[in-house]
Amino acid sequence: MTWTHLLESIHDRLAPTMAKDFPNLPVEKEEGCYYYGTDGKEYLDFSSGIAVTNVGHRHPKVAQAIKDGADQLTHGPSGVIMYEPLLTLADRLAAIMPGNLECFFFSNSGTEAVEGALKLAKYTTERPYVISFTGGFHGRTMGSLGVSTSKSKYRKFMQPNGLTYQIPYANPKACPEGEDPGDFCVKQLEKDIQSLFEHQVTPDEVACMILEPILGEGGYIVPPQAWLQKVREICDQHGILLIFDEVQTGFGRTGEMFAASHFGVTPDIMAVAKAMASGLPLSATVASKELMQKWPVGSHATTYGGNPIACNAALAVLDVIQEENLLENTKDVGAYAHKKLTDLAAKHDVIGDVRGVGLMLAIDIVDPVTGEGDSKGLMTILESALEKGALFYFCGNKTEVIRVIPPLTISKEQIDQGLEILDSALCEYEASIRVS
User: Fold this and answer.
1) How far apart are the first and last CA of the chain?
2) In this structure, what are the phi and psi dihedrals at residue 34, rounded to the nearest 5 degrees?
3) Per-residue b/e over 413-425, b at no fewer than 16 CB within 10 Å?
4) How far apart are the C-alpha atoms of 400 and 382, rounded to whole Å?
5) For residue 362, is pLDDT > 70?
6) pLDDT at residue 162 greater than cutoff 80
7) At residue 76, what are phi and psi to the nearest 5 degrees?
8) Residue 14: pLDDT band by 50, 70, 90 thresholds?
9) Is the dihedral of CA 125, 129, 131, 135 positive or negative?
10) In this structure, are residues 222 and 357 in contact, taking their beta carbons and an 8 Å threshold?
């Protein structure tokens, strides 16, 4: 069948919830920071496959590792057999993880890594309840859905198990003028946790708290360091395990290998995925050896987790990050991009806040009169940018935030090219609303 016929059948063959995302761009190839469309056009990618292809699309070293791996093994399953790429990857990861996080359960996706983290916490503490933070996104399987609150539509009719409680995530933007954001957010946290423990659940019933060290799908909110340190302190005080969901922030996205390093906080358990194998399904639940030893055989298992080809790809990803100095590039180019976005905000009334760390950046699109998030305007801007050759993606509770998350291999010249396109799309949109 031709591409045209295949696209015509998309809504007959794919579930709407899989087929209807933005922008459904038909592509035939990817390379570096670019997608190549079936229309013959080149698209500069500022989405990285939603923060997955951190080392760039189809990096030659990763592609070769996949080919070489397929010459040896295509499937585990780990435990039934054992293979070198899995063990080497565990060793390599243990050397770069925060603190004493050195023991791994490999799975296939971010939501599976989160499920594993929740199960590990509940099993080892023998406590039933979980606390998560409003706005967090941790996946769509039933356990992870129960702690995901970035959008209510994700939970509609799904009936999560109810053994979770939510308290507000840090919101530095709500800080009154003249007050320190860290002090403000810490005070709010102390009030919220006190109310929760007094009225809804006792702390000795709580197995864990789970959060993203930088809020992802919920709007790219960067919390104050003091807030995260207070979360750690509360967990320690009550014997509650702290889980960091670093599915989106991991593997260099923020300029550090993991976002935990920015805050000086080490969690008890971590969930990692996305950029780990540059697009191949691979994730991990990570904890100390001491904690993992309390999780006996049969309490959790996997058929596909730790696939040998995916492990080969992940080893190549670690090589590329080191050999090409991608952490340094992320800090340097990320600071450059942040400045360029700040300049755009000064020029365009429809840009609200500019925020982020490394190459995990975002801008709010707002109604210039009310200051409220403008999801309709955002989609118009994204569609215009796509027509001009740049792919951006969105997030936020009201779909009011544009993510700027290109591959970590991106150059300043490519940042200029992409943000010039975004600037043009913003100009067109503002002209249209002035006329109307």
Assistant:
1) 43
2) -130, 145
3) ebbeebbebbbeb
4) 11
5) yes
6) no
7) -70, -105
8) confident
9) positive
10) yes
Inform me whether the pLDDT recorded for 173 exceeds 70.
yes
Segment 11-28 shows an average pLDDT of: 86
Torsion of CA 326, 270, 261, 146, to 10 degrees: 100
Model confidence pLDDT, tens digit, residues 131-156: 999 999 999 999 999 999 999 988 88
Report the phi/psi class of residue 399: left, alpha or beta, with left for phi > 0 and alpha for psi in -120 to 50: left
Is 390:48 a contact under the CB 8 Å cutoff? no
Encoding tokens for residue 404? 């700027």
What is the C-alpha to C-alpha distance for residues 221 and 213, in angstroms, rounded to an integer?
A: 9
Closest to 390 (Cα-Cα) out of 70, 46, 134:
46
Task: Give residue 436's pLDDT.
Answer: 63
Kindly report, residue by residue over 213-251, the tens digit of the pLDDT: 999 999 999 999 999 999 999 999 999 999 999 999 999
Quote the distance between the C-alpha of residue 390 and its chain's center: 21
Helix and strand counts by DSSP (H, E) for the chain: 16, 15
**Chain centroid, CA 364 distance in Å:** 18
How far is the C-alpha of 313 from the C-alpha of 321, rounded, in Å?
A: 12
The amino acid that residue 41 corresponds to is: K
Question: Percent of the chain having pLDDT more than 90?
Answer: 90
Tell whether the torsion through CA atoms of 26, 17, 283 and 147 is positive or negative: positive
Three-class DSSP category at 363: strand
Domains and CATH numbers, the chain: 3-55+325-435 (3.90.1150.10), 62-323 (3.40.640.10)
Confidence tier at 10 by pLDDT (50, 70, 90): confident
Asked if residues 247 and 274 have their Cβ atoms less than 8 Å apart, the reply is yes
Phi, psi (rounded to 5 degrees) for 347: -90, -30
- What are the beta bridge partners of residue 355? 362
- Is residue 34 within 8 Å of 22, Cβ to Cβ? no
Global pTM exceeds 0.90: yes
